[in-house]
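dumping this here so i dont lose it
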């Protein structure tokens, strides 16, 4: 059993850049209440400290994040950030995702909530929710089609199979593709390049771009809620989650 006092997130400053690292690698950086609160606190620091002009968000050496801790039963929403402390957050400062290993489910949805992406050439991106009878509830349904070509986003959502970083890079989702172990230095270099510019100009541009892109997100959240209501409480939803926790193949009944 994990230590209840164990840290979930570590931060450090590199000049005007805040590096935020998820440190629950033994649990694949799955987000529970404590990690959501820790991410929220770190991102509040980035938002509120005027000496910080950009951030880098990363996970472990072998995995970025596997999404929700299913045992948390959805208890990972914060007041300022929404799900995971980041998904519905309105940020002023650019945030670069540095992805080693797998970014799956809510992990990919965290990446989609960032502004730029640096990935190892061994990274994987996926939305496997349909394989366990649930749906992407943290904006993947509408942010994936915004960030990726439509058919590629549909492939991720409908097959549940991940794609390799090279394919994500070719599609324009990944900004920098680097060797394993080099994502944080590369993300820091990208963030440092941003911080050479006037911070208020950067913040104004980011706010405007994000507000333009998020113009249809209210509808996206409504459609996500509708999709969730259609499967909530079904036999297949219960079977999917139980089969995942019990590490066995699900037996679908379409009801």
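and the seq i came up w/
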């Amino acid at each position: 059993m994990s230590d209840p006092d164990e840290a979930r997130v570590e931060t450090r400053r590199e000049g005007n850049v805040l590096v935020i690292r998820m440190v629950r690698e033994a649990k694949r950086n799955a987000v529970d209440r404590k990690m959501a609160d820790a991410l929220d606190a770190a991102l509040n620091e980035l938002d509120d400290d005027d000496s910080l002009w950009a951030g880098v968000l990363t996970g472990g050496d072998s995995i970025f994040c596997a999404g929700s801790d299913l045992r948390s039963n959805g208890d990972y929403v914060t007041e300022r950030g929404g799900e995971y402390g980041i998904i519905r957050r309105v940020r002023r400062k650019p945030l670069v995702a540095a992805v080693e290993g797998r970014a799956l489910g809510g992990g990919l949805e965290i990446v989609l909530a960032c502004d730029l992406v640096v990935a190892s050439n061994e990274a994987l991106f996926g939305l496997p929710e349909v394989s366990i009878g649930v749906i992407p509830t943290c904006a993947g349904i509408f942010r994936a089609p915004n960030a990726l070509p439509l058919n590629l986003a549909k492939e991720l959502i409908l097959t549940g199979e991940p794609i390799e970083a090279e394919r994500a890079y070719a599609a324009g989702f990944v900004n920098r593709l680097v060797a394993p172990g080099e994502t944080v230095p590369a993300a820091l270099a990208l963030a440092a390049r941003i911080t050479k510019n006037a911070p208020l100009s950067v913040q104004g541009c980011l706010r405007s771009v994000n507000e333009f892109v998020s113009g249809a997100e209210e509808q996206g959240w409504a459609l996500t809620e509708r999709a969730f209501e259609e499967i909530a409480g079904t036999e297949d939803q219960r079977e999917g989650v139980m089969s995942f926790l019990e590490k066995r193949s699900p037996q679908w009944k379409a009801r």
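Residues 144 and 150 are 8 Å apart (CA to CA).
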